[in-house]
Amino acid sequence: MKMLGVVTIYNPDPVEAAANIKRYVYDLDELIIWDNSSLEKNLRSLILHELNDVKDKITWKGDGENRCIAQAINFAWHYAKEHGLDFLLLMDQDSQWADFVAYRQEIETHYSAGEIWVYTPYVVGFDFWSIENTVQKRRLFINSGTVIPMSILDDIGGADEDFPLDALDTDLSYRVIKAGHQIACLTDCKLHHTIGHPVRKGPLHIFTNDYGRFRTYSITRSHIICYRKHRDIMTAYECRKFFKEIFWWKFVRLVLAEEDKIGRFKMFFRGIRDGVSYEIKK
Q1: Most buried one in 34, 82, 124, 158, CB count within 10 A?
Q2: Strand ranges (DSSP E) for the chain?
């Protein structure tokens, strides 16, 4: 069984990004580096210099435009089909594996036994639920660290490019469930990852990623569209969490912690408007 990886990068520190890639690239059959960067002209040569001993495994894609993640996933999906690869690993530039070798071995063991699932590690910094078994089924995954068999990607038709970044992983998760597949967390396998770069700001020292206007719009619009697409299978807990995080906490952060309040509030309400008016594809 062969595994393709795709890692999306956006103006990273080249040495740090290469160090994170080295934690798993040796145990992949091929890797696509999807470059969304716009600032560093020499980024490619700097990273490939650090990865010189595995350069034959690497395909570099990207044209200096930030096309986010969905297009990268779909390119990798078609590439894997054309080259006879069995799995697709999704990675973020900041994620760090504890032991990728063990993760891949566990995946192949389950897959060989007919347990054809979407596989995820336990994500340190994101998963806070208690571990009870070596395999625990879950409903949602984040992109980084997730491995999707080609057969499942074929069933769901790849990534929806209406979700180029925000809510993409949530949309993929629900589409996997709707297609009749399961998501399995292999809890012995750990990936260190945090969502964004939260900092404490404002008089109450509230945690916020302090996203700018466009990202505020994108997060709001994409999550509303995702909710409208999948509310038929969302649990009551997932619905409550959605409204609490996307509306209540975002409102609180804008009032008490974030900068550019007027500009971001305008984009927040525009995101609500465009998410509600978006025509859901049948």
Answers
A1: 34
A2: 3-9, 30-35, 58-61, 87-92, 96-97, 118-124, 135-138, 147-149, 183-192, 199-201, 206-208
Read off the pTM: 0.92
Quote the CA–CA distance of 140 and 260 in Å, as a whole number.
32
Q: Which CATH class is domain 3-192?
A: alpha beta
pLDDT tens digits, 157-203: 999 887 766 889 999 999 999 999 999 999 999 999 977 667 788 78
Q: How far apart are CA 146 and CA 112, in angstroms?
A: 18
- Give the span between the Cα atoms of 87 and 118, in whole angstroms: 10
- Which one-letter DSSP state was computed for residue 51? T
Sequence spans of domains, the chain: 3-192, 199-277
